[in-house]
Amino acid sequence: MVGPANPPVDRRLEGDLPVTSAERAAAGLDGSATLLVSGFGSVGYPKAVPLALADADRDLSLTVVSGGTVGDEIDTDLLESGAIERRYPYQGTEAARDAVNSGAVAYQDRHVGGLADEVAFDLIAEGDVAVVEAVAVGEDWLVPSTSVGQTPAFVESASELIVEVNRAQPLGLGRLHDIYRPSDPPAREPLPLTEPDDRVGDPFVTFDPEKLTAVVETDRRDSPYEFRDPTAEDWAIARHLGDFLTDEMERNRVLSERITLQFGVGNLGNALMSELSGIDIGDRTLGYFGEVIQDGLLDLIEEGRLACASATSLALSADGQERLFENLDRYASDVVLRPTDVSNSPALIDRFGVVGVNSALEVDVYGHANSTHINGSNVINGVGGSGDFNRNALVSVTALRSTARDGSVSRVVPMVSHVDHTEHEIDVIVTEHGVADLRGLSPRERADAIVERCADPSVRPTLRDYLKRAGDAGGHMPHDLDTVFDWR
Amino acid sequence: MVGPANPPVDRRLEGDLPVTSAERAAAGLDGSATLLVSGFGSVGYPKAVPLALADADRDLSLTVVSGGTVGDEIDTDLLESGAIERRYPYQGTEAARDAVNSGAVAYQDRHVGGLADEVAFDLIAEGDVAVVEAVAVGEDWLVPSTSVGQTPAFVESASELIVEVNRAQPLGLGRLHDIYRPSDPPAREPLPLTEPDDRVGDPFVTFDPEKLTAVVETDRRDSPYEFRDPTAEDWAIARHLGDFLTDEMERNRVLSERITLQFGVGNLGNALMSELSGIDIGDRTLGYFGEVIQDGLLDLIEEGRLACASATSLALSADGQERLFENLDRYASDVVLRPTDVSNSPALIDRFGVVGVNSALEVDVYGHANSTHINGSNVINGVGGSGDFNRNALVSVTALRSTARDGSVSRVVPMVSHVDHTEHEIDVIVTEHGVADLRGLSPRERADAIVERCADPSVRPTLRDYLKRAGDAGGHMPHDLDTVFDWR
């Protein structure tokens, strides 16, 4: 591995910059602009300009495209001011969810790995103004803060750029970044990484200096995730996953020397990572090539278990952020933050033989997964990067609790009411009850494995009845469409 | 482009080979073997050994893994003899469909682009014996015939190899082949192609000579597809697609110099390709990077419209085969046949900015597509490569007739009964009535576009009623699960 290059400066602002207030920067924006905002995993998003827009007494109809999840300044304050008309590709607040589900905000949920191209090629919206958070800025460069996300593509695509320099984010964050912009099709070069922690770019994003219309200073902290403590079910899922990984290392020759994991599992993540610190991996190198870095990964790095962690965002708790900020020297050699079109690249996920572990709201007996919609209608967040990993991983695992709402609702159902990941992609399902390895199984065999090993025992008789009734009528994947949703 | 290398020989058999009869080769097989058979697009599959197995008076329980579609010798004769217990990853005969839907044969339908890895790494089944058709064979090499399919991976993975040398297939077919085996993760090298028609491998497959247990000679022809003539609806779809492509060339900067298309559309294909010969592409280069080469592509090559065609199979009609066989010199400079993990590589589909056009059985008002299952239960063929292209294409188009069964069944429905391609992947839907460009639209907007532009006018009132009723209850993607399948 090449060591991290130094960020270009040791000061926050360098050169002749259009420094102004958030209010003045906001006032200069067209009321129906498309804003391309930094941020992923609830960190590294602009805060001051969105708040100034929310407070402005103007009639706004903005399109807001973010990297991934952003905080309340955008998806609560700005959104509740009525300023947002359209929103891509992911949202993660209660206010945004309500607005999207009521139809007040038009939302399209996209695979985040492909979003940079969709923006760069004007395929979903034409980007006008990039508004990005940085730890430092010069006349033609900026250093992103706690997430890289889609910032490089956004900055390149926008005709105008507003930078928020956030003094609450350590300047040293630039030491984590590896900014590489893929070239365009039809002569796109292969991404040049040969290892998950290769550095192939710069610690900063460059731009045409003519674009830079405003630099705003702020010291407002991210509003990062609040993770709950793992439950007994989380620990049980983690143990089953640990057992599965132990077996898989033995039988899958791609894993004979190196295991590269990805986790997109929210609250479950820290239990999984704690479990990982206990399993025997022999002489193998353990790496992480994913989308977000959670607190548990820091533990694994500390313990010397994890050789490297590559992601697009530091989706840490407030404690985790603090810990990383205070030990940047320690982490800079093992942690790399990349643009989302590199962290979630189908080619790289395949190249490194990633074992992906992602969650879902529900799975069905034939192995389809719903990550996004309750009752087929109400979206929670979005598909995020789960599809990038489920589709391209060497082994894709869906890990979820078998029930929701204190056990009253089964997450294993006859047919999911919305499909984000198909039967062609999900290899393994893990719940607190066990592991269903679906590889090579016909749909009827999959149903048996999922019901008997993963469903809550209390609902197994009902699921068996459904399968019996549907199966009597025949079919490769027997369904009784007249009653398939009566279950609810 | 580097010109095609010559095949290694001008004779069918070279060296000291274990030539034997199909019957003796078949008799040497274990009754519960996993057979990895060549063939894709209904051509290039072994014929004599499967027929000998079908005729043998033995109790067989074989697992048969093919590249893609194979002919009746395997999926009718051998299957109806009761010899096949498991089948991957695609089937295309009435006999196989019936056996799979009755549960008599256990079938798992996979994305064909990922199958080579799944076999090589023993992820779905452990391959025992590769049975492949060739136009020529030596002690440690073979030249595939009318399809390359998964043959290189199958030959590498199997512990035993049986080669059928087919004298009915021209020896010159080797001039079309470019055989490249991707290296394994976690140190997988990027595929080295920079243009759709680059040649980066050999015209032959090499193998460990110890594996070769039998060489069988045959002169049995492929049983290729029978294409019907385009209907008025097919022509209307083709015209709408032509209009869409004309517009897209102007607005999508990736297409400013080169357009690379893929078609996975069966009977519709020849109408689309005929339409293509009429549209104005300016100075652009037109290329094809797909899975199968259909007759219409030969016309485009003849006309000088198409610079190159890359695929894994010559899925031609009998007439098309004849035409290609008689003009191999002409076509060898413009047609390349590759392994399926190269033809359908996510990285390459992305790298070349492919515009993919695939069909479906039905689509729903929110833009999900069902390519495989009738009423959610009965599989027709399989997902094939449609998912590889829909997911990774620059623009993914689903083209289908708005109705089935002489207009009595709408192919635009409230909710598809099986999802193979999600709302996150389908960019554009085209029927004989028009084009719905879904990019950037919220689900409610997508529903409006699909119903008003693509559904048959006779069913629009019913679909509007459904959307009104579901929409009144709210939701990002409003559904009324109590009545969503009443439509049928």
Cα distance, first to last residue of chain A? 52 Å
Oligomer: homodimer
- Any idea how many domains of chain A? 2
Strand content of chain A: 15-25%
Q: The biggest beta sheet of chain A, please?
A: 10 strands, mixed
Query: What spatial form of chain A do the alpha-carbon principal axes imply?
Result: globular
CATH class of the largest domain in chain A: Alpha Beta
How many strands in all of chain A? 25
CATH architecture assignment name of the largest domain in chain A: 3-Layer(aba) Sandwich
Q: Give the helix proportion of chain A (percent range).
A: 25-40%
Using CB atoms under 8 Å apart, which protein chain pair has the greatest interface?
Answer: A-B, 85 and 84 residues
CATH fold group of the largest domain in chain A: Glutaconate Coenzyme A-transferase
Q: Rg of chain A to the nearest angstrom?
A: 23 Å
Which segments of chain A are poorly predicted (pLDDT under 50) over 5 or more consecutive residues? Answer: 1-5
SSE class of chain A? alpha/beta
Q: Please count the helical segments of chain A.
A: 16
Instruction: Determine the mean pLDDT of chain A.
Output: 95
CATH level-4 homologous superfamily of the largest domain in chain A: Glutaconate Coenzyme A-transferase
